[in-house]
Design brief:
Growth Hormone, Chain: A
């Protein structure tokens, strides 16, 4: 390996961070472009939503197999293969003439490409940098994913409003070309295993298990009973996969994933921390975007603009966190970040009303982003501190898989919580303004149906009915407050998990 690159150049970091950015961006920027895509491709909303879901599904499903391929192909080579596939996929998506073409380019090819690149981004960084540089580099990589998710709606809004959603994929293609132009700056890493070491049976079982698990999560907002059944089936398959991998290792064969790595407390705790933070961020952004667009009727651009303080908070505190590790340890900083994010959730829980303005949400979003910045910036670094170099690829795959699962779970789970919050808000509103109907289930259902149809402040106020305005106001406030309270509880769990981490030694 070129030592000057290893010790002095940030170009490898820039290249892999760009890859992480476009992979995460792909999952969010099209959410505000659906209506225009439907028109351009002569399709329907449900078809586009299915394509979006399959992108996440395919990425998650092939993640563990990709982790092993790093050892067989080499992490740089696998990263570049993934980048090449991603470029092909994003080009096909950009020139799509129908939904089938969009599915092949975006969901299928880009989904597989993302799975090939994501574990390699972490392992390339951990193999290229050391000490404080590695801490900073892993922080940048982690936060690029979070920033991409946060600014996705704004980016999509700009593309759709002023250009075309196709240009969004075009921008990603430019980044892929940049990666290939500069790819010689990425150090080479020799493969450590041969193709005969690939666990084909384990790969198939892992893909089936992850497909079922993620599919069940994605089904949750539409059919919760079937969703739970599919999730349980996925968990059973993943348990079978785990037992198979343990047996394979005992027989002296290289496993797809070394399950013994989970004996390390830092990796185990950080895996959950990464998953829960991605769930919290993705879920909160989804609920707030629904509120901004459905209730306040903000444009895609203004919706993205409103979430910008969260992105700024993430960026500032993520960049500061590695420097602060010279004074405070990782565990302390991550615990502080968890508490800050909880405060952000509490601040936001009071803000959602019919007459709320986008500016009133910005302080809470900044605080929430700041807290998440501390946690997410350091979670990958502390996860890997006790992992031997030969197992770094395996560990990076575990971390990136948890991240992808968290992103997949966020929207679906928070969507369910939002619905439960609406139902709770209806009960509260009826008890206050129509107590005579408190026990009337049909009346509650009628109110829910009416609420589903009224999604504009002007429409509500035009009715000139104080009771209706008050009822809707309570419903909205209760639903969004419930979402933020659940998010605060999730970050409370993250706080507890940070206390289980082993501190990284501080240099004097």
């Amino acid at each position: 390996m070129n030592e000057s690159i290893k010790e002095h150049s940030w170009i490898p970091l820039i290249l892999v961070a760009c890859a992480s950015f476009i992979i995460a961006l792909d999952a969010t920027f099209m959410t505000v472009s659906i209506s225009q895509v439907v028109v351009d491709l002569n399709t329907d909303v449900s078809t586009i939503q299915i394509i979006m879901s399959f992108y996440t599904l395919i990425t998650a499903a092939f993640m563990l197999m990709s982790t092993k391929l790093q050892d067989i192909v080499g992490k740089k080579k696998l990263f570049l293969i993934g980048a090449a596939l991603y470029g092909i996929g994003t080009f096909i998506a950009a020139i799509s003439q129908n939904s089938t073409m969009l599915f092949i380019g975006w969901a299928l090819i880009e989904g597989i490409a993302g799975a090939l690149m994501m574990p390699a981004t972490v392992s390339i960084i951990s193999g290229t940098y050391s000490g404080e540089k590695r801490t900073l580099a892993l922080a940048v990589e982690s936060i690029m994913v979070a920033i991409a998710a946060a600014i996705g709606p704004l980016f999509g809004g700009i593309m759709t409003s002023f250009f075309s959603w196709r240009y969004g994929f075009g921008c990603e293609l430019i980044i892929v070309i940049f990666i290939f132009v500069m790819q010689k700056k990425i150090p080479n890493f020799k493969p450590t295993e041969s193709k005969n070491d690939l666990d084909i049976t384990g790969s198939i079982i892992s893909v089936i298990g992850l497909v079922l698990f993620v599919l069940g999560i994605l089904m949750m907002p539409n059919d919760i009973t079937t969703s739970i059944a599919v999730i349980i089936l996925g968990i059973i398959v993943l348990v079978i996969f785990t037992l198979f991998e343990i047996k394979r290792k005992r027989n002296g064969k290289p496993p797809l994933i070394d399950v013994d790595l989970f004996r390390d407390r830092n990796l185990r705790s950080s895996t959950w921390i990464k998953l829960l933070c991605c769930l919290s961020m993705g879920g909160a952004l989804f609920a707030i975007s629904v509120y901004l667009q459905s209730v306040l009727q903000l444009s895609a651009f203004d919706t993205g603009l409103t979430s910008l303080p969260m992105t700024i908070g993430l960026l500032i505190f993520a960049m500061v966190a590695p420097k602060l590790t010279e004074k405070l340890n990782h565990r302390t900083l991550m615990a502080i970040g968890s508490i800050i994010s909880i405060i952000g959730c509490i601040l936001l829980s009071y803000q959602f009303r019919l007459d709320t303005t986008m500016f009133e949400l910005m302080p809470g979003l900044f605080v929430l982003g700041a807290g998440l910045g501390f946690v997410m910036a350091l979670s990958t670094d502390i996860a890997l501190i006790n992992i031997p170099e030969k197992s770094q690829n395996n560990a990076s795959g575990i971390i990136t898989t948890s991240q992808t699962l968290g992103e997949s779970m966020g929207t679906a789970i928070i969507g369910i919580i939002l619905i439960l919050g609406v139902i709770g808000g209806i009960s509260n509103a009826v008890d206050v303004y129509a107590p005579q109907y408190s026990a009337d289930e049909q009346f509650h259902q009628d109110v829910y149906d009416a609420f589903q149809k009224v999604n504009n402040i002007d429409e509500i106020k035009a009715q000139d009915n104080t009771v209706v305005v008050n009822v809707v106001d309570i419903i909205i406030h209760s639903a969004m407050a419930f979402v933020m309270q659940v998010t605060a509880i999730v970050m409370g769990i993250v706080f507890i998990l940070t206390l289980r981490l082993t501190n990284k030694k501080i240099k004097n």
